[in-house]
Amino acid sequence: MLYRLRHDFRLSIITMLGVCAIGGITPFAVFRFLDGNLLAGFVDTIILLGICTAMAYAWMTGDTRRSGFVAALIACGGGVAVAAVLGNIGLFWLYPPFITSFFLTSPRIAVIINGATLAVLVAGNIAFESTEHMLSFVTTALVVSGCAYVFALRNESQRARLEHLATLDPLTGVKNRRALEEELQAAVASQERNGLPFALALLDLDHFKQVNDDHGHSAGDEVLIDCVEVIQRNTRQADQLFRYGGEEFVLLLPGVEDFAMRSVLHNLHQALRRELRSPTSPVTASFGLALLRPGETADQWLARADDALYRAKENGRDQVCIAGEGTLKAEIAGVGLID
Predict the structure, then answer these.
(1) Of these residues, 132, 183, 222, 247, which one is catalytic?
(2) pLDDT, position 337
(3) Low-confidence ranges of the chain (pLDDT < 50)
């Protein structure tokens, strides 16, 4: 529960609105029922139930976009209803919705909701004692909404940037393990939906620890950066490279059938052989390949590629192994298999 609140900003705002509604609206609803103002008590109760329902929906489904939009509508619409029932004192209930709407939904939609709310109040002359009163309220509401808009835009931009950085490896600039998990799930879903083939390659730099031991970690870092550059030069833009951890990388190839997978990885293997070096010697890599099977989960797919990589390393390294098959090598006539 606390983890979701810390990592889902919109869910935390919806939850905060629900808690504030329970703590702030409930006493007024009870007081108004006891005071005989049944209509105001009924309006308060409807607002409270609506916000709590939106909060419960967000927690159960994780759909904070839709529930946030509904909560913003209920808060602003409820504020108008309270102002209509109670008069000018009810206008004070609209300031919190004017602010929170920018965090419950996108800034653009929040502007529309707040603008529509003000338009209804002005067109219906709801709860205003005079033109001066109306202009004062509209002006302050616009100032509050404008400040909230600027803050929400800035917050949205920073959050998007942080989410982007959280999926990148800081050394090599390629995507990290967190991003890999999401992309593998997306690949499995795409194959189930469209039948699009996918191939997965795990590669591990051979004897990389020796590079760090002999030349230091800065030299090892340079080898990793060079490795990424070689891979990116020898793969398509549609292919995605991830740093899985340490000297291990994962290459996701969409739209690739069996023969194309073998050809691409054979060429990549040879390119790394030719171009990748430590300060004193060449650096080679071992590969494990697996095509995504129908009905297979992302974990099963990754595990098969990992098993193939393990076989490549056990068989002497500097080679490409295919899950369930043998070792890929260059032959005079083309690309073949050694069983």
Answers:
(1) 247
(2) 37
(3) 330-339
Q: What is the pLDDT of residue 5?
A: 76
d(C-alpha 92, C-alpha 236), whole Å: 58
Rounded Cα distance between 17 and 83, Å, is 19
3-state secondary structure of 45: helix
* Alpha-helical segments (H) within 195-257: 208-215, 217-233
Judged by DSSP in three states, 172 sits in: coil
Q: Mind giving me the DSSP string for 265-296?
A: HHHHHHHHHHH-B-SSSB--EEEEEEEPPTT-
Per-residue model confidence (pLDDT) at position 160: 77
Neighbouring residues of 22: CB distance < 8 A, sequence distance ≥ 6: 48, 52
Question: How many angstroms separate the CA atoms of 265 and 224, rounded?
Answer: 18
| Every domain range in the chain assigned CATH 3.30.70.270 | 177-338
pLDDT at position 81, please?
93
Buried b or exposed e, range 272-305, using 16+ CB within 10 angstroms:
beeebebeeeebebbbbbbbbeeebebeebbebb
- Range 177-338 has CATH code 3.30.70.270: yes
**What is the rounded CA–CA span in Å between residue 185 and residue 289?**
18
CB–CB of 282/211 below 8 Å? no
> Closest Cα partner for 58 from 16, 99, 110?
16
User: In the prediction, which pLDDT does 335 show?
Assistant: 38
Q: CB–CB of 256/198 below 8 Å?
A: yes
- Residue position matching structure tokens 């050809």: 263
183 labelled catalytic: no
Give, for 69, the enclosing helix (H) or strand (E).
Answer: helix 64-86
For residue 54, give every residue at least 6 positions away whose Cβ sits within 8 Å of its Cβ, in sequence order, or none: 14, 18, 67, 68, 70, 71, 74
Quote the pLDDT of residue 329: 52
Q: Are 73 and 116 in contact (CB under 8 A)?
A: no
Q: Would you tell me the crossing angle of helices 107-123 and 131-165 to the nearest 10 degrees?
A: 170
Which amino acid is it at 107? Answer: P
Quote the Cα angle for 20-23-24, to 5°: 75
